[in-house]
Amino acid sequence: MSQWDDKFKNHAIHATLDNLEERLSDETLKTDDLSVLEHIDRIAQLKLYAETCLENLIPALVNHGHLNNTNSYIQSLISELNNYIANKNVAHLNNTSSHIDNAMAQLIALPMQSLPISKQSFTKSLLQFKSLAEESLLEIKESKDNLDASITAISEDAVDQKSKIKFREFGFRNSES
Length: 177
Fold this sequence. Notes:
Elements: H1 3-9, H2 13-24, H3 34-55, H4 64-87, H5 90-108, H6 119-176
């Protein structure tokens, strides 16, 4: 293996992408908010695109400045994602857009074998989005079912309380007669 291959193989961007994947699997990101889902999907697509680019990179021709910049933008994106996970402020997800755009500009500048986006990678992206949407919908259904059960219990309790009040009123009136 050449020094270029080793330098590329040991670059921090690989660990950063692994960290991004871990962040994207956080349960907190499952939601029914389509705006949030779109941001998360865009981040997942950047991750997938970056991995595809790195798989097709020509290590001997890499300008490590571009690779370092890409890594820096993805780390900033992860920071914003962590902030969103911590406080649910959607502004953090909005901030990821510029980091994605900047990372894409750096990725495009990397020397890659020109390969069209494969059906496999496109399908993988769609399946990831579908999975995220399905998990979010399941969570919504569970919340709805829990809410329905709570409403039923409260309604039954209210009917029971009402009958006890009527019984007391009826019993009180009969004792006055």
